[in-house]
């Protein structure tokens, strides 16, 4: 099997690999009607295998422009992302363009998927919704189109002025959660993150949770933090259920558990109940996202609600600004603490009146 090439691949190299002429490859990549169907299929397959992406400067010379925006969704079963998709499509259509969606499973490389798509579809711009984004600077430059990271705060491999990003202020969100639970008397607070392969939002939220705990309870605080082994579906109810069992078995002292997403938190809540405990009397549970189902669980889930519409609107604004050649922008948006019935005072602690905690968002 041919090794995947991560640098700039030329049409000439694809032609040599396929045993056809450069003109044939060029016409196949541009979907010219006079190319044999079998040859076109072989050329496109080879281009994908080699990681081909068109030259940025050559693209600028084209006489026609695309009216599509590629939306690359990492982890397409994530309920929060599913709620965002219709909003994205509506906002982009308002600007006279349409959306082409790429659904990338958790274990696959979303940057490589985007490169393969832009090589043949030539979208005007790209939005990455979620993901690890381990791609190199050369890979992103090879996209040949402006792009925005949505729900991902930054990518250290890239120059800040080469892309835009819009995300939840995770540091503020985790501080809000820890302060709220601490005001209820909780000190033994656990955190369940995504799998250990997640070096993006999963890593950040784990870091900010630890920082918030140290700030509230002292620098020597070592809270219980669990992240599961690498797997295909770390943002799932089942993942939260399994890690919930593990948390309660290894750290029975916890009186509150924070799931890094609502889906994980709902799985944790099921684990608490399965082990014969009550929520929130024995263990309080908190999530992050504000997905619709969190308002209908029993008990209803306390969560940090992400500003879904603002996230989409700001992402689209940044995207179309980039298409106009304007400066990059990096935005962190505050979430809202929504207190519901999955949280309460720590067990064995009696409050004459439950503390009132107001969001700083």
TrEMBL record:
Q: What is the lineage of its organism?
A: Bacteria, Bacillati, Actinomycetota, Actinomycetes, Actinomycetales
Which segments constitute the HTH lacI-type domain?
A: 9-63
DNA-binding as UniProt keyword: yes
Task: Name the InterPro entries for this protein.
Answer: HTH_LacI, LacI/GalR-like_sensor, Lambda_DNA-bd_dom_sf, Peripla_BP_I
Q: Which GO terms describe its molecular function?
A: DNA binding
Kindly give the PANTHER family that the UniProt entry links to this protein. Answer: HTH-TYPE TRANSCRIPTIONAL REGULATOR GALS, LACI-RELATED TRANSCRIPTIONAL REPRESSOR
This protein's UniProt keywords: DNA-binding, Transcription, Transcription regulation
Pfam (any one): Peripla_BP_3
Q: Which CDD domains match?
A: HTH_LacI (cd01392), PBP1_LacI_sugar_binding-like (cd06267)
Name of the featured protein: LacI family DNA-binding transcriptional regulator
Nuclease in keyword set: no
Q: Which PROSITE patterns match?
A: HTH_LACI_2
């Amino acid at each position: 099997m041919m090794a995947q090439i991560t640098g700039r691949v030329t049409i000439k190299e694809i032609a040599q690999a396929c045993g056809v002429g450069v003109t044939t490859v060029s016409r196949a990549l541009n979907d010219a009607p006079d190319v044999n169907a079998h040859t076109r299929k072989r050329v496109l397959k080879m281009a994908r295998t080699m990681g081909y992406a068109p030259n940025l400067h050559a693209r600028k010379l084209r006489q026609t422009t695309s009216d599509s925006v590629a939306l690359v969704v990492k982890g397409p079963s994530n309920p929060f992302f599913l709620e965002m998709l219709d909003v994205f499509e509506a906002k982009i259509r308002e600007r006279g363009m349409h959306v082409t969606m790429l659904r990338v499973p958790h274990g696959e490389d979303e940057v490589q998927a985007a490169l393969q798509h832009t090589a043949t579809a030539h979208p005007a711009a790209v939005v990455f919704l979620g993901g690890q984004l381990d791609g190199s600077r050369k890979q992103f430059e090879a996209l040949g189109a402006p792009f925005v990271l949505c729900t991902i705060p930054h990518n250290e491999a890239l120059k800040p002025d080469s892309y835009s990003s819009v995300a939840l202020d995770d540091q503020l969100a985790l501080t809000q959660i820890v302060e709220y639970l601490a005001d209820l008397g909780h000190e033994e607070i656990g955190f369940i993150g995504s799998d250990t392969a997640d070096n993006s939002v999963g890593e950040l939220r784990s870091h900010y949770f630890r920082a918030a705990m140290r700030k509230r309870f002292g620098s020597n605080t070592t809270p219980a933090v669990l992240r599961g082994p690498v797997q295909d579906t770390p943002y799932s109810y089942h993942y939260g259920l399994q890690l919930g069992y593990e948390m309660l078995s290894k750290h029975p002292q916890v009186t509150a558990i924070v799931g890094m997403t609502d889906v994980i938190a709902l799985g944790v809540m099921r684990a608490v109940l399965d082990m014969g405990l009550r929520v929130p009397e024995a263990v309080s549970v908190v999530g992050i996202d504000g997905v619709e189902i969190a308002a209908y669980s029993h008990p209803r889930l306390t969560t940090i609600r992400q500003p879904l519409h603002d996230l989409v609107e700001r992402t689209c604004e940044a995207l179309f600004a980039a298409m106009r050649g304007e400066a990059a922008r990096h935005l962190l948006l505050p979430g809202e603490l929504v207190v519901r019935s999955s949280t309460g005072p720590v067990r064995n602690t009696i409050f004459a009146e439950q503390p009132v905690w107001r969001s700083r968002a």
